[in-house]
């Protein structure tokens, strides 16, 4: 049996103000929280048990959504990381709970095709990593390969990256990894780095394998990352289905209208999703937009945006590239195009 370990602590400062009230791992992509996709992926990889690392600031919200894990076909348990001290530190907290091979999965990362495709390749290794070539590797841990393609070194968030191969947020580990977390010292960032632990394993002759991932990888760290991830998920998964009511309106492409939603005198261009109980009236919803449950959009145009549950937009000529938090209200007295990153319960009058 494979055990899952989801790392969902941290404060997500790069996603403020949204992350001040909504944990990053619960931000919806196509109206499903990021961590929901992670848990589904672990279940698809054969995990039956998952341990979720949470912080004191977000544990209650994540517990409320994940519950006992049964909705994902998992048994979920929770471990509190009192202070964010790095990925290796977070993993080390699970030592007394895990005695078999496990998949450590950052709760804000998603990968095309899922983790299950790498299970057979990870067997026989003490640790197995997924790598992806990126444009800005300084944001990530970076892998260095020699001319024969052998993994020789790992560096965490280097100022001058030695390669463009970033470590993705999915690690296939064995219990041997826990021994190496005990030998770590804080890095220059003041954290216990997973790259340092893996480096120690390689120096001790442990087998650390890797695969270069083919397909997309979504690391939801900043506002633009959220919008891009929402677009990718919609592009891959959106389907045309009408469960609510459509009155004197036009749906173009793959548009999902959830139960209880009403689209009236409007145009919705897919890929897009309109959440349960929402009302779209005299409006244009453009592609790559997710409208959460119980939202109200009137006399407005919204495109390439994420609107969370209960928010309202009225009389705005155009909103684009925006994240609107839960129960926020955007009300326009004039007409203009705007870009917003608005947290929960905000009120913006234009």
From TrEMBL:
User: GO molecular-function annotation terms?
Assistant: transferase activity
The record ties this protein, via InterPro entries, to: G1P_thy_trans_l, GlmU/GlgC-like_hexapep, NTP_transferase_dom, Nucleotide-diphossugar_trans
* Superkingdom of source: Archaea
* Keywords, alphabetical: Transferase
- Glucose-1-phosphate adenylyltransferase/Bifunctional protein GlmU-like C-terminal hexapeptide domain segment(s): 240-302
Family matches, as SUPFAM superfamilies: Nucleotide-diphospho-sugar transferases
> Where is the Nucleotidyl transferase domain positioned along the sequence?
4-235
What is the protein's name according to its record? Glucose-1-phosphate thymidylyltransferase
Query: What organism is listed for this UniProt entry?
Result: Thermocladium modestius
**Which lineage do the record's taxonomy fields give for this organism?**
Archaea, Thermoproteota, Thermoprotei, Thermoproteales, Thermoproteaceae
């Amino acid at each position: 049996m494979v055990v899952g370990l989801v790392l969902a602590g941290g404060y997500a400062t790069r996603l403020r103000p949204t992350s001040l009230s909504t944990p990053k791992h619960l931000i919806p992509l196509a109206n499903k929280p990021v961590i929901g996709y992670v848990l589904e992926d672990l279940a698809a990889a054969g995990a039956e048990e998952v341990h979720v690392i949470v912080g004191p600031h977000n544990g209650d919200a994540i517990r409320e959504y994940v519950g006992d894990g049964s909705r994902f076909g998992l048994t979920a348990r929770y471990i509190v990381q009192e202070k964010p001290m790095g990925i290796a530190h977070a993993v080390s907290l699970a030592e007394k709970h895990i005695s078999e091979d496990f998949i450590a999965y950052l709760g804000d990362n998603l990968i095309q095709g899922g983790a299950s495709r790498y299970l057979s390749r990870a067997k026989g290794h003490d640790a197995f990593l997924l790598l992806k070539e990126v444009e800005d590797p300084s944001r990530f841990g970076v892998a260095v390969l020699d001319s024969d393609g052998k993994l020789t070194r790992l560096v965490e968030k280097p100022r001058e990256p030695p390669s463009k191969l970033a470590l993705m947020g999915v690690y296939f580990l064995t219990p041997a990894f826990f021994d190496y977390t005990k030998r770590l010292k804080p890095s220059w960032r003041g954290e216990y780095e997973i790259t340092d632990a893996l480096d120690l394993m390689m120096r001790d002759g442990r087998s650390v394998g890797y695969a270069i991932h083919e397909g997309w990888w979504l690391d939801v760290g900043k506002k633009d990352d959220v919008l891009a991830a929402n677009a990718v998920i919609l592009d891959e998964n959106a389907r045309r289905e009408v469960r609510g009511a459509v009155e004197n309106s036009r749906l173009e492409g793959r548009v999902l209208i959830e139960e209880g939603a009403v689209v009236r005198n409007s145009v919705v261009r897919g890929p897009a999703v309109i959440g349960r109980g929402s009302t779209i009236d005299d409006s244009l919803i453009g592609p790559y937009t997710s409208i959460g449950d119980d939202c109200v959009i009137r006399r407005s145009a919204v495109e390439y945006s994420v609107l969370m549950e209960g928010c309202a937009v009225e009389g705005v000529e155009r909103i684009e590239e925006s994240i609107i938090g839960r129960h926020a209200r955007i009300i326009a007295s004039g007409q203009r195009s705007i870009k917003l990153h608005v947290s929960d319960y905000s009120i913006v009058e234009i």
